[in-house]
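Notes from hallway chat w/ T.B., transcribed later so I don't forget. T.B. wanted the structure written out for a chain they're using in a teaching module, and asked if we could keep both sequence and structure tokens in one place. Agreed to drop them here.
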Amino acid sequence: MSIIGNSIGGALALHIVHHGREDQVIPLQETSLKMAQLLPNVELHVFSQCGHWTQIEKTKEFSDQVIYFLSLRKVYVALQC
């Protein structure tokens, strides 16, 4: 995955990023941590004892965070109107 800082830093939308700390497929340091540094409105959730499939390995925690994030998005959109 290649991220160009100049293009991603201008994203204004809210973002949620999930990553498994023990992910052997996509390195945390080079992807999700980098995105969290570059995006202005991002929530980064790193799951311990979790590999590549956060939504499967940590289903409850993943679902709870997504539902909460989407509820915040409704408030954010309402404030923008």
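Follow-up for T.B.: The chain has one domain: 11-80. Might be a good example for the class.
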